């Protein structure tokens, strides 16, 4: 009999539930996206997000059980994101998970959302074993990690200001693209010339693994404002390709530097920005040149989902970790912040 975990994810604007067998096999992966709801505001409105999560969390869980063809009683452990993320959304997921665990007398495990993003790679590549370097790039995070063994995370670098996805989304909004800007810029960039606009790079030295995208964002905003003032039309594909290239270049440099310094042969990317085709293509070429193995999940496991939470939670549970009824939302939770029992 496979051992089943139910994963629940509500940290941002996706209400998601998944059933995972033995931590590695996805039996269902249901995602109710709120993107359309937030599009008219140009970004996620936390209160609207929480209200939507509370409406759909149980229907999404029901759907996940139905698609996996299992009953709630067959679930062995309930895994739920407890941070980082928007507090209102996290509380909805945690309360839903606790109610189920309490009624069914099942164990509950809190999961760090970033750890979940890393586990998306274990789901996509079940034979993957550490050591590796992982770049987790999403709307809220840009973390460069050294993972020497399962469950051990050494944070090498992170963004000092905006996350890469946040920079994509902010510039997308100013360019008048629908939210989220990342996939839109990715699409436009495919037809553009990445050398058309020269954008600055920050922290390019080998003395830090940190990132900074605020200077790039300001440079892009200035360029857009200058064009508006001069009543010049911005060539969107060229602008998108150049802006995206500045991000890809910065991410690649630090990822490869970390692989060299730690002498590891496997590099992994995860999080929403890991769905970026330009980043995937460039890293594939670089990895080939350097004899490195590059792995990334399919796009549906890059952006927020509950399969990754079910997988990470299952392995926490197998290693003996459990939470009690005091499990709470930790909006600013960091990797390694082990507030979990
Ligand atoms: O992992 P995720 O779904 O949520 C967070 O944990 O933040 O990531 C969402 C972010 C958004 O900023 C979105 O614009 C970005 O990932 N993203 C992309 C692409 N797909 C999603 N950025 C660049 N290119 C893409 N194809
Ligand atoms: Zn995420």
Which descriptors apply to this entry?
single chain, 341 residues, alpha/beta, Nucleotidyltransferase, domain 5, five-stranded mixed sheet, 10 strands, 44% helix, 18% strand, globular, binds 5'-O-[(R)-(carboxyoxy)(hydroxy)phosphoryl]adenosine, binds zinc ion
Layout of helices and strands:
Blueprint: E1 4-9, E2 14-21, E3 25-33, H1 35-39, H2 46-68, E4 77-83, H3 87-104, E5 108-112, H4 113-124, E6 132-137, E7 142-147, E8 154-158, H5 164-174, H6 181-189, H7 214-229, H8 236-261, E9 266-270, H9 277-290, E10 293-295, H10 299-302, H11 307-318
Parallel strand pairs: 1-4, 4-5, 6-9, 9-10
Antiparallel strand pairs: 1-2, 2-3, 6-7, 7-8
The structure holds 5'-O-[(R)-(carboxyoxy)(hydroxy)phosphoryl]adenosine (KG4) and zinc ion.
CATH topology of the largest domain: Nucleotidyltransferase, domain 5
> How much strand content do the residues show?
15-25%
Gyration radius, rounded: 20 Å
In the CATH scheme, the class of the largest domain would be Alpha Beta
So how many helices? 11
Number of domains: 2
Number of strands: 10
Distance between the termini: 27 Å
Short description:
This protein is α/β, with parallel strands linked by helices and 341 residues long. It has helices at 35-39, 46-68, 87-104, 113-124, 164-174, 181-189, 214-229, 236-261, 277-290, 299-302, 307-318, and strands spanning 4-9, 14-21, 25-33, 77-83, 108-112, 132-137, 142-147, 154-158, 266-270, 293-295.
